[in-house]
Amino acid sequence: MEAVRNKQVLFRGFITAAPKETDMEFRVGTAELRIPEGFKGVLVKNLYLSCDPFLRSRMREFYNSYIPPFTPGSVVEGFGISRVVETNDEGFRPGDLVSGLTGWEEYTLITSTDRLRKIQVDEKIPLSHHLGLLGQSQLNHARMPGFTAYAGFYEVCSPKKGERVFVSAACGAVGQLVGQLAKLHGCYVVGSAGTKQKVDLLKNKFGFDDAFNYKEEPDLAGAMKRYFPDGIDIYFDNVGGATLDAALLNMRIRGRIAACGMISQHSLSFKEGIHNLYMLIPKRIRMEGFIQSDYLHLFPQFLDRIGDLYKEERIVYMEDTHQGLESAPATLAGLFSGENVGKQVVCVCRE
Prior knowledge:
Blueprint (H helix, E strand, L loop, with lengths): L2 E9 L12 E9 L9 E9 L3 H4 L19 E11 L9 E7 L3 E4 L6 E2 L26 H12 L7 E4 L7 H10 L3 E6 L2 H9 L5 E4 L6 H8 L4 E6 L3 H10 E9 L26 E4 L9 H13 L7 E5 L4 H8 L7 E5 L4
Parallel strand pairs: 8-9, 8-11, 9-10, 11-12, 12-13, 14-15
Antiparallel strand pairs: 1-2, 3-4, 3-6, 3-15, 4-5, 5-7
Helix pairs in contact: 2-3, 5-6
């Protein structure tokens, strides 16, 4: 069979800081549109790729983890939405739309099909939203935004109507949805973000009660005291570091902290310590880390509920879509410098 062009993004070598565009290499290779003899799986054409913080972990030379690092010179791998081109796996047919781990390239042979999920197309929901708003993964290290927000808020935070909720990185892929779910639950919600544009979006698009730019606050604990004079019941933590330290001082008795992500620490070889952890004791705070794959039994319920809320226009979801595989390295690097607004998606191909 004649080979076709296959654009690819390769991983150059291990890193110790935040990813840079130069840590990846774009090239044009070739691919044959058939499954090689002796292999079982599906050959897919990739349509959308997701840029996620966990990819940084796979760029480190660290092997004592449940998530293996990339091999230098290999194709970067992440979550994507793809269409099946050819298959010898009885669970899939040519033309099926699937989501799961795939290569940062135009065509990928996927042999681990047990973690692929067929997508049920709904014309009222953009296909790319299955990477964000309706995203889910069976991999422990993945933080698919929609299901992460849903499971983290309802299962870990155990919210009650009227409670005071603080969300960091609130304009990101997870935070924007957490805030909206909290508002629908009858909570008072404040978010933090890193630009005036994001603060405006939180208040005017996502419906937060208030928001502030943490970069303009030399005293984060004092800022939180202004917005939560009576304290914080729930802190949904996406950043860790100084923001978590300040939140600990402002929590109410029996407050809950959902430790979802610590993006402020991703670019640091030596992680920052937390000074106010002792507040867990006198305030009887429950702080819990979680992974969305712990709650897979809730995924059908999540799909129905969030899908309906979106179609009823009771929630909104913002994506930052970049066109062409060539844009993927810069898009991933921008995730760690705060350039993103909403879910970062690379459109490889529009059918």
